Amino acid sequence: MNFVVIMTDTQNRDMVGAYAGHPVDTPNLDRLAASGVRFNRAYTTCPLCTPARSAIFSGTHPTVNGAWCNNVPPYPTFPLMGSIFRHYGYRTAYTGKWHLDGSGYYGDGEAGGGFESDWWYDGKRYAEDIGPAMFAAYQSCKTPDELREAGFTLENIWGHRAANRAIHFLESVGEESFVLGVSFDEPHHPYVAPPEYWEKFSDKDLSFTERSDKAEAAKPELQSLHRRERMADGCGLNPDVMCRFFGCNSYVDHEIGRVIDAIDRLHPADTVVIYTSDHGDMLGHHGLAGKGPMMYDEICNVPLIVRTPGGNPAVSDAVVSHLDIIPTMLDMAGMECPECLHGVPLRPILDGTAPTVHDAVMLSFTRFAVNHDAWGEFYPIRAMTDGRYKLALNLFETDEFYDLATDPYERSNLIAASEFAAERNRLHDALLEEMDRIRDPFRSYRWGARSWRTVREPFYGRGKRRDAPRRFQFQPSGIEAR
């Protein structure tokens, strides 16, 4: 079985027509959704680029694999997708944004994660291809006319060149088993697309009738700071920016369609297609923009579609995680999933033999980036959701609890509501157990000692020892320190 993992950046579920329920000009993703299993309750592990990507490509939580904020790479002891499947004899290719080497947003130009160098096309390689003048324009253009003056056409957009490499790989790999990662930076800022895509939408096309942009009571103070400091000038949400954002979103759908068409033409009978986004964008909900230290569904509940050869189209409301991607791939390839992976295979849902594989899934946030303070402080959050309820522990301040069935936009914080105490406490117990199971390095008794419930007491030296779980057979076991 072959695998193509297609990923976008900062693509809210409402930016995909199959999820939004109204047209946003994503016909190719809508077509993929109609032919695969569309997961309505798929969650990132962290609503931030590097941590989210580390979970997708390692199968482990970012706090455990070391990439717990932007510009910090995973520990070298954690094998990534390319290394894992290369060990089992697969060709492994990757093209597009990486953001996992710790060097910065655009990368260092060196193939990572065990993927072959010939197909690698991170931001540095793209910048070198188009030259410093055009790359400077890539980062600064604000109007379609500026794009045209800088010479941007379909052929020199990052996403187009990344898709070209993916298609070339599919054309050249022959009968060899392969894993191909196709990672689009789009629709992430600076939203660069062919100029006509920036002209495609007007602000009237992009109304969100359910969006609440007002301050809400009983919410963490950090959200109020975000609202005051970043939203005072409509940061990122003025009509021109939104039209560029959604125009780029439409453009990346075009490139995704090219890759899907190549799969269908060259490898239709033996290739699994997995599509997702690393995280979403707040799009003004709760008066917030971008992503960061919030656990709202706008940035955490990501699109996920899995299409298998000969599989039946379906829609699943099961709560699942990015952590399940590598276990699913290994399972479909007939390989063992070691204990060190934090997710589980999704095959029971994909083949219709079980409605769900998780009772709940965990999310986290620790810090935005290690190299600057412009996006807030160390702000640890651990959250748990079962798809109906969501509990978020903001270690330093107000915790949150939501009933997603009656309050899908998470406006009413029910953390102190006595009628929800049993459900809240159930998720609290599950969260503490999960932090212990994965050996979250930021775990402490304080997560279990909240103003509304205390189930853990201070300790030093009385904690339970937790040795490392069984890893892949090809990894050296090492010598346990005693």
Description of the structure:
By secondary structure, the chain is an alpha/beta fold. It has 2 domains: 2-359, Alkaline Phosphatase, subunit A (3-Layer(aba) Sandwich); 365-454, Arylsulfatase, C-terminal domain, CATH 3.30.1120.10. It has 16 helices and 13 strands. Strands 3-4-1-5-6-2-7 form a 7-stranded mixed sheet, with helices on both faces. Strands 8-9-10-11 form a 4-stranded antiparallel sheet, covered by helices on one side. Strand 10 (389-394) and strand 11 (400-403) form a beta hairpin. Helix 9 packs parallel to helix 12. The longest helix is centred in the middle third of the chain and has 28 residues, at 239-266. The model has no long low-confidence stretch (mean pLDDT 93).
Brief summary of the model shown:
By secondary structure, the chain is an alpha/beta fold. It contains 16 helices and 13 strands.
Tally of individual domains: 2
The radius of gyration over CA amounts to 22 Å
CATH class wording of the largest domain = Alpha Beta
Distance between the termini: 42 Å
What's the helix-strand series?
A: EHHEHHHEHHHHEHHHEHEEHHEEEEHEE
Major sheet description: 7 strands, mixed
Unreliable spans are none
Shape: globular
**So what's the oligomer here?**
single chain
Total count of helical runs of at least 4 residues: 16
How would you write the strand order of the largest sheet? 3-4-1-5-6-2-7
**In CATH terms, what is the fold-level topology of the largest domain?**
Alkaline Phosphatase, subunit A
